[in-house]
Recover the amino acids of this structure.
């Protein structure tokens, strides 16, 4: 019972090796791995190139989907990776959109210049929403986000001098034209807007990618997995939640600024009610919670599926069919589309860092 | 020290010492207040009274208690299920500089080879025993001077419990890490520990050398249900 060997001795016999069926081994940094990564980026570049050739109406629709995807990327930071349900992201989207809208309409600033301000206000309001997590947790925090979603349109209505009240704001077209240095004309506006929205999406995804690899990202996921345990390991739970809400708010504010430029007209009843928050949540769940590509798939589903269904079914029926289809998807793939694909991928492929020994049961 | 939830105290004016390098055990039935005691010491729960560590007042927030050298193996192991084994270990080392953490990962993956083999796997895929090893290794990643262990034998097969306790004995002997273990599994815990305390309905009702508790059948049957 009381072994006193000086060098640490293995105290535990290893469990039997896991069954390893015929799996593909992919070593990070190997030629095969590099080719795969390169190939994926090539496909992405080709898709973007193909998209720029779409007719203006289709391109506009795609910009809308890209904006929704960006907002879902933001939502994913709190709800996906930190495990905090937010039904208030419609308001964060609105804060960003109205920051751009108000600054352009009231102060005649160029929309592009207002983007950092939209990110900042989104982040500030996000931090403010996260602040109660110092004292409260669980569903109570979700209630705070719900209150924000409900209050936001009313706040807009209560400040008509700034926000245009019920009738909202409309950004004059001259502000939305591509700037001269791009060489694009007013007729190219859909392309310009699309490229802006796409850049915003890529920057947001890159930011989340970096956060996930940082200590903060690890803490966020630790809080999500087991908050009480994480706290006892010394993870600063409240600070982690507030930072997650701040980053999430900044990204969603950025999406809002893009929305303002893409739509050109903002109103309280438009895109910033709780219905939008639910749309974002549905997209996140469908695409895959806590996956990096899930927001893209989710946005595509919530933006395009209703359009496709409207072609098939007339009137109210399409809404019902949309709801029914969402339930079916969630039932068949509870981990979301990308979550399911990741799972299938992991079942077939081992991605291992260079220098890891091959599994014993699987001789090379 | 006293502690509880809201206005009502669950643990009443208990007093105990853990000497440097010692393993102490607190025995008690379900609901006696063992978990509450550990959580209060680590700062997760509010407490009243005095808790001293190395002659200084113990900080009251968990981030700070970890920093001064206290770490916790929580009840139910506290596995961060969606994080990899490696990430679980690094969470434990949040207060250490990165190069020390990397060295300690190698050390504990060597000590618990199962963890080394599974370091890139999600911790939730480990067996109960493996998760308990992970919980212990995670706690040690902070390079603590005192580890609080909340029922490390809970839900494990007897043979696995023996391995876990053997590992604890080994770590204590090699590194001199002090441990405060709360347990319902009296026999094994008393064999491992030097001093023992019995907690009953939130009050300490007996304290002494662990060996005395093992030998004294009356003490055992009175406090430990005859185990
Ligand atoms: N979160 C909580 N809120 C209120 N009471 C609690 C909570 N956790 C435990 N208790 C109560 O405190 C008492 C001691 O619990 P605990 O410390 O978990 O006991 P043990 O770990 O010895 O089984 C029990 O009566 C239990 O009902
Ligand atoms: Mg307990």
């Amino acid at each position: 019972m009381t072994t006193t060997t000086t060098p640490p001795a293995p105290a535990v016999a290893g469990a039997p090796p896991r069954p390893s069926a015929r799996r593909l081994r992919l070593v990070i940094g190997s030629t095969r791995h590099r080719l795969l990564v390169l190939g994926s980026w090539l496909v992405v570049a080709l898709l973007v190139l193909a998209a720029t050739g779409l007719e203006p109406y289709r391109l506009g629709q795609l910009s809308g989907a890209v904006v929704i995807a960006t907002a879902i990327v933001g939502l994913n930071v709190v709800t996906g990776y930190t495990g905090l349900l937010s039904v208030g992201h419609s308001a964060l989207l609105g804060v960003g959109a109205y920051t751009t809208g108000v600054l352009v309409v009231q102060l005649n600033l160029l929309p592009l210049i207002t983007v950092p301000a939209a990110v900042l206000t989104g982040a500030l309001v996000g931090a403010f929403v996260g602040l109660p997590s110092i004292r409260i947790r669980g569903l109570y925090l979700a209630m705070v986000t719900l209150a924000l979603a409900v209050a936001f349109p009313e706040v807009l209505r209560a400040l008509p001098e700034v926000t245009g009240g019920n009738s909202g704001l409309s950004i004059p077209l001259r502000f939305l034209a591509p700037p001269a240095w791009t060489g694009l004309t007013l007729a190219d506006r859909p392309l310009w807007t699309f490229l802006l929205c796409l850049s915003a999406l890529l920057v947001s995804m890159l930011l989340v990618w970096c956060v996930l690899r940082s200590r903060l990202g690890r803490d966020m996921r630790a809080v999500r997995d087991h908050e009480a345990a994480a706290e006892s390991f010394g993870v600063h739970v409240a600070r982690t939640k507030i930072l997650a809400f701040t980053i999430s708010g900044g990204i969603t504010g950025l999406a809002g600024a893009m929305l303002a430029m893409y739509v050109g007209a903002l109103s309280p009843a438009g895109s910033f009610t709780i219905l939008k928050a639910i749309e974002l949540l549905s997209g996140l769940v469908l695409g895959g919670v806590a996956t990096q590509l899930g927001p893209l798939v989710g946005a595509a589903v919530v933006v395009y599926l209703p359009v496709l269904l409207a072609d098939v079914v007339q009137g109210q029926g399409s809404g019902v069919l949309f709801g029914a289809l969402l339930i079916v998807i969630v039932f068949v793939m509870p981990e979301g589309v990308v979550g399911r694909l990741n799972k299938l991928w992991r079942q077939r492929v081992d991605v291992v860092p260079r220098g890891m020994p091959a599994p014993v049961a699987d001789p090379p | 020290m006293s502690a509880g939830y809201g206005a009502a105290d669950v643990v009443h004016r208990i007093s105990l010492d853990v000497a440097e390098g010692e393993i102490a055990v607190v025995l008690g039935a379900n609901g006696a207040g063992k978990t509450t005691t550990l959580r209060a010491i680590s700062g997760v729960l509010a407490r009243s009274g005095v808790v001293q560590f190395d002659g200084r007042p113990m900080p009251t927030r968990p981030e700070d208690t970890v920093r001064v050298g206290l770490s916790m193996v929580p009840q139910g192991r506290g596995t961060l299920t969606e994080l990899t084994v490696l990430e679980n270990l690094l969470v434990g080392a949040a207060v250490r500089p990165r190069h020390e953490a990397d060295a300690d990962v190698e050390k504990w993956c060597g000590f618990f080879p199962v963890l080394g083999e599974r370091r890139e796997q999600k911790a939730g895929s480990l067996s109960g025993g493996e998760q308990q090893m992970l919980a212990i290794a995670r706690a040690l990643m902070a390079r603590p001077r005192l580890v609080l262990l909340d029922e490390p034998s809970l839900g494990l097969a007897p043979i696995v419990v023996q391995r876990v306790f053997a590992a604890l004995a080994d770590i204590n002997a090699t590194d001199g890490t002090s441990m405060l273990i709360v347990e319902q599994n009296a026999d094994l815990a008393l064999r491992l520990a030097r001093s023992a305390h019995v907690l009953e309905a939130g009050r300490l009702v007996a304290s002494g050398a662990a060996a005395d508790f093992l030998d004294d059948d009356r003490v055992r049957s009175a406090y430990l249900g005859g185990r």
Notes: The beta strands of chain A are 24-27, 169-170, 265-266, 349-352. The first strand of chain A starts at residue 24 and ends at 27.
